[in-house]
Amino acid sequence: METRNLMTALVLVAACAFAVWLRTGFARPPKSLRGRAAEVGWCAGLLAIVLTIIGQEQPYFYQQYPAVFAVPLAVAALLVLWPRLAFGLVPPGLIFLSLAGLVAARDYGFWSYLPGHYLFLPLGQYSLQYYLVLPLAYGLLGLGGWLGWRVLDRQAPVVRLLLGPLSDPARPERLWGLLLLPVVIMACELLIPADFLGAGTVGVAVSLAVFCGSFWFIRRRPELAGSLATGGLVAFGALGLWLAGAWSDWGGPLRTAGNQYVLDGAVAISSRPLASVAIAQSLVFIGFGLWLAPRTIPQARRLLGWASDPDLMRRVQRLTESRAVAVDTAAADLRRLERDLHDGAQARLVALGMNLRAIERLIPTSPDAALALVVEARQTSARALTELRELVRGVHPPVLADRGLGDAVRALALDTPMRIETDIDLPARLPAPVETACYFAVAEVLTNAVKHSGAREARIAVGHADDVLRIAVTDFGIGGADPARGSGLAGVEKRLASFDGIVAVSSPVGGPTMVVMEVPCASSLPKISSC
C-alpha cells in the first residue's frame, strides 16, 4: 500500500478507536477501563481487517479507486454506534484473511508471479517475503478460531444446535476434534492445490464440500475426529521428513514442470534451507501428535497405562466433590433448623408455658386478667404453629410431596413478585431427592432474579425427555449475571452436582438471563397432578 494511503488508513483507525473510547465512557452501566480498552481493541482490529481486505489485491487500489474509502468509513461509523459489533466480526475476518493467504501462496508458488500484497508483504517475482505468507496465514487461522471460540455464546440455542456435542461443557476433550479442520486444510493444500480454494465452479464446490463435510464429521463424531487429527499430525510429520529428503538434491520426485514448490503445512519447500525448516516443522507435528495421542485415542491411553475410562474418572471426581458439598450442606441445614427453632417456635412455646403458669395463679384471684392471658396464649400458639408450618415448608414443601415438581414450581411462580409464565411438561413423577433439589434450585434462581435483575417478567420451562430433566429459567432483566461473583448460582450448581446435574448460564449485558439446569434421572412414580 502506498505510504500516503497507509497513513490515511492509520489515521482512520486511530480516529475510530478514539471515538469508541469516548462513547464507551458514557455507557450504562459504566464499563471498567479494561472493558473499554477491550472494545477499542476489537473495533480497531475489525477496521484494520476491512482496510486490509479492500486493498489486498493491488498495492495502489485506494489510489485508483478513492471512492472505496466509503466502505471503511461506513464501518467506522457503525463501530462508533455499536462497538460490540466487532466482537462477532473480527474472528471471521481473520479466518477470511488466512484463507486469502493460502490462495496467495498457492497462486504465487505454482502458476504466476503477479505483483500484489498479502497484509504488509509485497509479493513479486523471486520475492523472499513469499515464504512468510503461509506462516502468517496459519497464524491468522489459529488466532481467528481461538478468538471466535472465546467470544462465542456456547449456551445460545442456535449455537448449541450448530455445534451439537462440541458445546457440552462437561466434555472439553471433544474440542480436540476441531484440530481436524487445519489438518484437512493442509492435506488439500498439498494434494489438490489446483482446485482447493480456487476460482470457478469446481474450486468453489470442492472448497465447500471440504469445509462442510469436515465440520459435519467433527460435529457428529468429535472423539473420532480428535483421533484422526492426532494421526494426521503424526502422518504429516513423517511426510514432511520424507519431502525434506526428496528436496535435498534439488531433483526430488515431486519437482515437475511448472511445480517449483511443495506446500508442506506452513513451509513452501523450494530449497535446501527450507527443507531444513520443514524438518523442524515435522518434528513439532510429531511431538504434538504424540502428546495428543493419550488424550484423544483410547488405545494409546491403555498402552501408556492411563485410566481407560476418562468418563469414570470424571464421575468419581465429581461424586467425591459433590459428597463433600452434600455433607456441608446438610450440616448447614441442620444449623439453620436449630437456629430457626430456637429463635422462633421454641421461644413462643416457652412464652406460652409462662402464660399458662400465670393463668393458673390468676384464675382464683383475678379471672379477667387470666382471661386476657388466655387470649394472648392462644395468639402465641397460633403464631408458633404458623412458624412451624413455614419451617416445614422450607424443609420440604407439602405441595412438592403431594403433587410433584410441576405443581410445586407453579406454586412457586405464583408466590414470586413478578409475572412468570410457566411451560411444564412432566409426564410422570421423578425421584423425590431430584424433585427437592430442583425445586430449591428454581427457588434460588427466582430469588436472584427478583433481587438483582430488575425484571418484571420471567419464564420457566420444565421438561423431561430421554431420562434427562431440563429446567430453563429466563428473566427479562438487565443481565450480567456471573456465577463466579456470587454464591447463589454457585450454590445451585453445587446442589445439582450431587445428582450429576449441570448448570449453564447465559447472561449478556442488557439481558435476558437464561439459567439452564439439566439433571439425568428416570421418571419413577405415576403422575399425580391436577394440571
Question: Which terms summarize this structure?
Answer:
531 residues; alpha+beta; two-stranded antiparallel ribbon; 9 strands
Explain what you see.
There is one protein chain. This protein is an alpha+beta fold. Among the domains are: 155-306, no CATH class; 311-395; 402-520, Heat Shock Protein 90 (2-Layer Sandwich). The chain is 63% helix and 9% strand. It is built from 19 helices and nine strands. The protein has helices at residues 3-24, 33-54, 61-64, 70-81, 85-110, 133-151, 157-163, 180-191, 200-220, 222-246, 272-296, 298-303, 310-343, 345-365, 367-395, 398-403, 405-415, 432-453, 488-497, and strands at residues 116-118, 121-123, 262-264, 267-269, 419-425, 457-465, 468-475, 502-506, 513-520. The protein has a five-stranded mixed beta sheet, covered by helices on one side. The protein has a two-stranded antiparallel ribbon with strand order 1-2. A two-stranded antiparallel ribbon has the order 3-4. α1 (3-24) packs antiparallel against α2, α10 runs antiparallel to α11 and α14 runs antiparallel to α15. The longest helix has 34 residues, at 310-343. It is elongated, with a radius of gyration of 33 Å. Mean pLDDT is 76; it is low at 250-258 and 525-531.
